[in-house]
Design a protein that fits this description.
Distance between the termini: 45 Å
Largest sheet: 8 strands, antiparallel, barrel
Number of helices: 1
Strand order of the largest sheet: 1-2-3-4-5-6-7-8
Shape: globular
Mean pLDDT: 86
Structural class: alpha+beta
Low-confidence stretches: 4-24
Order of helices and strands: HEEEEEEEE
Radius of gyration: 19 Å
Length: 151
């Protein structure tokens, strides 16, 4: 009887762990996201979002550039430690924490102008898209982008 109980507990624990892992795929922004250019509607970059101690960070992993564009541009409009650093590898999203509905309290940096904004993010469409908002002061004074999860 004792062995059956232990086996049942082990099976239940594995089932819970397995469902948590499956749930995390579409219930967390951790993963690779394709950013879309606001003006052209074309893919702009891939951003890899990681989590450490409940805090999200996003780093540019790849740029989609035309053949006549600089393939490894530097962030010439950035300030501080990011000044003139390659855009690929830059941390552009940081400090986001889950508040029960969305990820808030973070910052996002736009390499095109070097400016940093407050940010928040929310998974939409079953976790296949991430609505990322950068803003000044309060969220109503900003703009949103929709990023698409890479498979």
């Amino acid at each position: 009887m004792h062995k059956i109980f232990k086996a049942s507990v082990l099976v239940a624990a594995l089932a819970i762990a397995g469902s948590a892992a499956a749930r995390d795929d579409n219930h967390t922004p951790v993963g690779t996201w394709k950013t879309i250019d606001d003006a052209s509607g074309k893919p702009k970059s891939l951003v890899v979002i990681t989590e450490s101690n409940g805090v999200l960070q996003g780093k540019i992993d790849k740029l989609f550039r035309g053949p006549n564009e600089e393939q490894n541009p530097k962030c010439d409009k950035c300030t501080g430690a990011n000044k003139d650093q390659p855009i690929v590898g830059l941390v552009i999203l940081s400090g986001l924490k889950y508040d029960g509905k969305e990820w808030t309290g973070g910052e996002i940096m736009d390499p095109a102008n070097g400016k940093t904004y407050k940010s928040k993010a929310e998974l939409i469409e079953g976790g296949t898209k991430l609505k990322v908002r950068g803003y000044v002061g309060v969220p109503m004074f900003g703009r949103s982008q929709t990023w698409v999860r890479e498979e």
